[in-house]
Design goal:
The complex is a heterodimer of chains A (about 280) and B (about 140). Chain A has about 280 residues and is of the alpha+beta class. Chain A contains 2 helices and 16 strands. In chain A, β12 and β13 form a beta hairpin. Chain B is about 15% helix and about 40% strand. Chain B is built from 1 helix and 8 strands. Chain B is α+β, with helices and mostly antiparallel strands and about 140 residues long. The two termini of chain B are about 20 Å apart. Classes of the chains: A alpha+beta (about 280), B alpha+beta (about 140). At the A-B interface, α1, β5, β6, α2 and β11 of A face α1, β1, β3, β5 and β6 of B.
């Protein structure tokens, strides 16, 4: 059931069961469903269905796109440019990833507002090695319990008791307010993390993961995998560095309940490994 | 309309329009507005108003801020940025970095600024070229 603009109640009116069901029960259920969506990030590996130059259009949700591009070394250099806005094709450049050294790879993560168009253009011959998207709040969430009580179905001519009003109205409003307030909580974490170990996001929130690493003594990097099963094989972000002092930062999202792991090429120096759990 | 702590109802009381409107209608409207706000994102091209010189900025949006800076080594072989963010002014916690080792190797550096937090971007080795600084205020 959808949302109905809450009625303005007036004195001396006869309150029917229909009014209570539409304006209290249905609206409460709607709000609870929407609040439960907030911690949801729907992950899609769209690597096989995305291509350079093609214009894509986001739907009604906030979309995070992590696009990993690679330079094989056939050209003197390669360039990837990222655009997003409401134009067709989009003309606002929001990022750029250029390689001048062979066998490098890096993820560029951009945010695409609802209804925006977006595309990636290239110069010379880079390739897309991974393209993963997360739609935030894009699906039904797992119902959070808290103090929530399924709103009652009001009946004609029944006597409304204070218990009904306290349980179905007061307590449920407080539950919704509490869940809303909880979405403002966040936690910045600097975990100790090992390569090739599978972790799970059990925070109940969306996890934004940031890694900043530097080239080791030879070609080195980190690949990040994330999936719903406990053997994640979906590549979601990667950096491969081939030169002394080279340092990059990548970001990807780990939906609530998802598994993730990091695989290293050689052992780059990790300067920052942080995640923040939000919503 | 703001939030009013929902009243505790008692039996045999006279429920008037003020009670119903304040404690049910207005509170529902408040929650609806809050829920809708979470679905929005405000994108700002902050390139012209930001600097890579250690200037301290603060996220006063009340929202989560996701930022991306595109930068590159433009005059020397080794140039880059360090990004610091925390609750202190000036911030000292390194949260992201880029260091280029060859000219014009553009990269997007992402970082995250919680509500109320301070952030600054300083150069590493030498000031790199940069051209795109976008900020997305989320939820």
């Amino acid at each position: 059931m959808g949302w109905t603009i809450p009625k303005t109640w007036v004195d001396d009116e006869y309150i029917t069961d229909s009014m209570l069901n539409v304006h209290i029960r249905d609206n409460m259920n709607y709000l609870k469903t929407e609040v439960d969506k907030h911690s949801v990030a729907v992950q899609a590996d769209v690597t096989g269905s995305r291509a350079y130059t093609t214009v894509y259009t986001n739907g009604s949700f906030i979309r995070v796109a992590a696009i990993t591009t690679k330079y094989g070394g056939a050209d003197s250099y390669v360039d990837n440019q990222f655009f997003a806005d409401t134009n067709t094709p989009p003309s606002t450049q929001v990022g750029r990833c250029m390689f001048t050294g062979a066998n490098q790879e890096c993820t560029t993560t951009i945010i695409i507002p609802p209804e925006y168009n977006y595309r990636v253009t290239k110069y010379n011959s880079p390739t897309i090695s991974a393209w993963v998207e997360w739609d935030l709040m894009g699906a039904e969430g797992t119902p959070t319990a808290g103090t929530w009580t399924t709103p009652k179905l009001w009946k004609p001519r029944e006597m409304v008791t204070h218990t009904m009003m306290n349980t179905d109205v007061r307590d449920n409003l407080l539950c919704l307010k509490g869940l809303e307030d909880k979405h403002a909580d966040w936690e910045y974490v600097s975990p100790g993390t090992s390569y090739n170990t599978v972790y799970q996001n059990t925070s109940g929130k969306i996890r934004f993961c940031f890694i900043c690493a530097e080239y080791a003594t030879t070609t080195s990097g980190i690949a990040c995998y994330c999936a719903a099963n406990d053997n994640p094989t979906t590549l979601v972000a990667k950096m491969i560095m081939t030169g002394l002092f080279m340092r990059n930062t990548i970001m990807f999202i780990i939906p609530n309940g998802y598994y993730y792991k990091f695989v290293n090429t050689q052992t780059p120096t990790v300067y920052v490994f942080k995640y923040v759990d939000i919503l | 309309m703001g939030w009013t702590a929902p009243r505790t109802w008692v039996d045999e009381e006279f429920v008037d329009e003020t009670l119903m409107n304040t404690h049910i209608k207005d509170n529902q409207a408040y929650l609806k507005s809050s829920v809708e706000t979470h679905k929005t994102v405000t994108r700002t091209n902050a390139t012209a108003s930001r600097a890579i010189d250690g200037t301290v900025y603060q996220n006063t949006s009340g929202k989560y801020r996701y930022c991306t800076i595109t930068c590159y080594a433009d005059t020397a072989q080794v140039e880059g940025i360090n990004i610091y963010c925390d609750a202190d002014n000036p911030p000292t916690t390194l949260i992201a970095a880029y260091l280029g080792i060859a000219l014009y190797q553009n990269k997007v550096v992402p970082f995250f600024v919680p509500p109320g937090y301070y952030y600054k971007v300083d150069y590493n080795a030498a000031t790199p070229g940069w051209g795109l600084w976008f900020e997305y205020d989320l939820f």
